[in-house]
Write a structure and sequence with these properties.
With about 200 residues, this protein is mainly alpha-helical. The chain has a domain of about 110 residues: Orthogonal Bundle (Cytochrome Bc1 Complex, Chain D, domain 2), CATH 1.10.760.10. About 45% of the residues lie in helices and about 0% in strands. α3 runs parallel beside α7. The longest helix has 24 residues. The protein is elongated. The C terminus is likely disordered.
């Protein structure tokens, strides 16, 4: 009995000391280029998915109409494209993150799903609003309004569908294409122009 108790006490002390020693002096993978821990993705993925399922809003408060899609595309171009890329233009920064930031305008390997268009808008909204630890994904609550976060989430849920031309211009990284051409001044009416 004393040996068992000694073994338990030794294990309770030895395991934390060994873990601390490894964290302090070992080769812990902390750089992006390091090999991940065994099962690191699984360990991080399970609690994230459980929390999102528990907290996400099931019914979005806005619909994917032209106004919300164009607004979401503008926000995407300003806030998201630096990591997630534009349509047809992957982001170099996103490829050098760990985990890699998903390219949100590319089709998946099966050729059907674009970006996160297979996720419910509420899941994307949760990720935009709250961010994700250890991924580089920030929380946009301090930056965007609730409506703006929904607009970009609705846009990404519809990334596999045809978009309005103005929205497509923003997600292609060409927002100047949406600008109205400058108005051509009307010729002055005879007798009303400024004197020369």
């Amino acid at each position: 009995m004393i040996r068992i108790l000694f073994g338990v006490v030794l294990g309770v002390i030895l395991v934390p000391v060994a873990a601390f020693t490894w964290l302090r002096f070992g080769q812990v993978p902390v750089a992006v280029a390091d090999k991940p821990f065994p099962q690191e993705g699984l360990i991080a993925h399970i609690p994230l998915e459980e929390r999102i399922d528990r907290e996400m809003v099931k019914t979005p408060p806005i619909q994917p109409d032209e106004t919300s899609l164009v607004a979401g595309a503008r926000i995407y171009g300003e806030q998201c494209a630096v990591c997630h890329g534009f349509y047809g233009k992957p982001a170099p920064i996103g490829k050098n993150m760990f985990p890699e930031a998903p390219p949100l305008w590319e089709k998946h390997h099966n050729g059907q799903v674009v970006g996160v268009s297979d996720d419910p808008p509420g899941e994307t909204y949760w990720k935009v609003a709250n961010g994700m630890r250890l991924s580089g994904m920030p929380s946009f609550k301090p930056i965007l309004s609730e409506n703006e976060m929904w607009q970009v989430s609705i846009l990404l849920a519809n990334a596999d569908k045809p978009l309005p031309p103005d929205a497509l211009a923003f997600v292609s990284g060409n927002p100047s294409a949406t600008a109205a051409p400058p108005a051509t001044p009307a010729p002055p009416t005879p007798g009303t122009g400024a004197p020369h």
